[in-house]
Amino acid sequence: MAAEKVRGVVMGLNGDEAVAWAVKQCNVDVVAAYPITPQTIIVERFSEFVANGEVNTEFVPVESEHSALSACVGAAAAGARAFTATASQGLALMWEILYIASGLRLPIVMAVVNRALSAPINIHCDHSDTMGARDSGWIQLYVEDSQEAYDTVIQAFRIAEHPDVLLPVMVNLDGFFLSHTLQDVRILPDEVVKKFVGTREPTKVKVPYLNNKEVPLVLDGETPITLGPLDLQDYYFEHKMPQIIAMENAKKVIKEVNEEYAKISGRKYGNGLIVPYGLEDADVAIVLLGSAAGTVRYVARKLRENGYKVGVLRIRAFRPFPIEDIVEKLRNVKVVCVMDRSVSFGAHGGPLFMEIRSAFYDMPERPIILNYIYGLGGRDLPPSTIKDIFMELLDIAKTGQARQLIKYVGVRE
Amino acid sequence: MSSAINIRELAKKEPKLLPGHRLCAGCAAPVIVKLVLLAAEGPTIIVNATGCLEVATTIFPYTSWKVPWIHNAFENAASTAAGIDAAIKALRRRGAFKHDRVNIIAFAGDGGTYDIGLQALSGAIERGHNFLYILYDNEAYMNTGIQRSGGTPLGAATTTSPAGRIIPGKLQHKKPIADIVVAHKAPYVATATPAHWMDLIRKVKKALSIEGPKFLHILSPCPRGWRYDPSMTMEVARIAVDTCYFPLWEYEKGTWRLTDRSLAIAKNPQLKKPIEEFLKTQGRFKHLLRPENRHMIEKLQEYVDAVWEDLLKRAGLK
After folding, report:
1. How many other C-beta atoms are found inside a 10 Å radius of the C-beta of residue B279?
2. Residue A253 shares a structural domain with residue A320
3. A71 → closest Cβ in B44, B80, B119
4. Which of A99, A107, B62, B227 sits most deeply, having the most CB atoms within 10 A of its CB?
5. Which residues of chain A lie closer than 8 angstroms to B63, CB-CB?
6. Same domain, A26 and A110
């Protein structure tokens, strides 16, 4: 926690409500959303804000998630600040438009309440939904608790709309573990948030056929800009490069926004990209995303109190993937256990594991890196299991021998 | 609405769809777009579903559109328009949109409307967004090479409903799409063709003067897909109306009216031509003219007659 003064009032909110409160305070012009468990509370609370005249937002209760994101694309292209929220099947239905939102460089913010994908149908948490969307050109931030869900939604608008970024942002919070669990959430004064997020300023572009005049890149009713044209083998690749660069730029911007936000709130999350714990002297570490990091940190603290050198690295930004920061924090650890809450069927380990292992390829010395897949379909990860994993890792650190590279934790045989 | 539509005055207006696009010779779509944009006064935003019109008018780095234009995807022209409508309402409330009114016009083909885009269209109409949806109906997936759609008529040969030895083209009728929109209680629904240009312009002007979701179903003859000479597009559109294959009407607040040539046919029934007159202009129906397929023509004629009779009743002309 930063030294800055903590501000705002404490409210008992669940993660979904915390998201709705953040959206309420961010002067969002258009919210287009469709209900899906466990995201529904976001839409319900926000509808109440609209019904009570507490926001100026135009709420579009669409007939599908595909239309939710399509409407956000239209709204953002017209210059509006746009938000939507979904989960699981809803995100899957949006798939096509995910790539269009990022390709058109529209700074839409979306909360995804992580939920397992069908079949079989399941409403509880895992990260399969957003992990599948990891290549869609969206920034992905995974939060640990409801306070962070609130804080991150506010930060997300600043990150998305930054001129060096202009990419859509997914704020991912664990279904039920966060979405439906009451927590004390500190809500900033409206005017503080309003000042922090500002208003969305449309990007200006020089258009060759308008005599290189600088015009706002929005559908304003008069400037004849063409958004989303056919773009073939002679230009498509060039148009992907700025998207790649913007994603790289986002690393710096996420860090800056994290620092700046600490000044208004007294809260910050590591360096914005990663949140380390105990890694200064750790022999072994668990790396993971989302709400389970809190439990893992709790277990690690207990073990450290008993002299065990264990650490935790929570990855907050999965896209862009903070490879340098991760390598820097883990390079002196002997055994790293990457815990994935999703499966990449047929791949050599979970998505987070593949990225982390690849990050260390160029290092002359690297830790033993293992992959433990856990929590599919909302399966709990209790402290006792985490303790067992840490003890196992310490054992591996001692012997230098791991029997199994990829393990499935907490599943019945 | 008061000023009469005058071709001399219209010709002086600046076109909003510029030359250089790659639509086929004889394609009705650019004619339709030009007429619509001539009718639309003031600030305008175009949403274009994926399809011939979108790909052939915007190949980067070129564009034919002299109005703000967006293409999102195939099935979501209506929801994209809905988002724009919502944005403008919100922006206007905070003083960030300077115009008092703006025309939001979505163009989509039959594939993007009858089939893959029907859900988004239905939702946007139900929510009452203020936009004009224009279906330019060339009666098949022309952009991908003439595959049958929900808008393809009975008996038409397409690449996925070919006229084979056993099956004589498409076995189903065209979906009554405009009736489906009317059933949503949209404030204004009408049909038009580019050949009946004055009727089309009047309908666009009227639609844009009405608040809420409006729907215009425009027949868009396609020389490649319908197999006729590119010089015959307007002729084919005219005969479609003369045979009552494609009647011209408008629906406004519960009232049906026949317009233009269709009104003339209603008043003078001997002007109504048999469906063969329409079929024989196009290669896609060639196989229907063979004796063994006579039953298909009869079936189509019965259908056309029934729809026409029903329309006369709705319009209070029977």
Report:
1. 23
2. no
3. B80
4. A107
5. 209, 224, 226, 229
6. yes
Quick one: A115 and A256 in the same domain?
A: yes
Output the pLDDT for position A5. 66
Alpha helices in A26-64 (DSSP H): 40-51
DSSP 3-state of A63: coil
pLDDT band at A8 (very low <50, low <70, confident <90, very high): confident
Q: Running DSSP on this structure, what letter comes out for residue A210?
A: G
Q: How close is the nearest chain B Cα to the Cα of A330, in Å? A: 42
User: Considering only CB atoms, which chain B residues are within 8 Å of A60?
Assistant: 82-83, 86, 127
Instruction: Report the CATH number at residue A326.
Output: 3.40.50.920
pLDDT at residue A1, as a whole number = 43
At B270-317, the pLDDT tens digits run: 999 999 999 999 999 999 999 999 999 999 999 999 999 999 999 999
CB spacing of A63 vs B45 below 8 angstroms = no
Q: Is A226 on the interface with B (CB under 8 A)?
A: yes
Question: ipTM of the predicted structure?
Answer: 0.97
Last residue of a domain, one of A216, A239, A265: A265
If asked whether residues A73 and A197 sit together in one domain, one would say yes
Write the residue in B71, B88, B89 that is nearest to A228 by C-beta. Answer: B71
Which tokens go with A246?
Answer: 């913007």
CB contact under 8 A, B82 and A30: no
Q: Token digits for A3? A: 């030294």
Mean pLDDT computed over A380-395: 98
Q: What is the pLDDT of residue B3?
A: 58
Out of B47, B58, B75, name the one closest to residue A229 (CB): B58
pLDDT of residue A209: 87
Structure tokens at A48: 């109440």
Per-residue pLDDT reduced to its tens digit, A17-75: 999 999 999 999 999 999 999 999 999 999 999 999 999 999 999 999 999 999 999 99
Average pLDDT value for chain B: 97
Asked if the Cβ–Cβ distance from B79 to A62 is below 8 Å, we say: yes
* A70 assigned to some structural domain: yes
- Please answer yes or no on whether B68 and A79 come within 8 Å at the CB atom: no
The residue ranges of every structural domain in chain B are 7-314
Superfamily of domain B7-314: Thiamin diphosphate (ThDP)-binding fold, Pyr/PP domains (3.40.50.970)
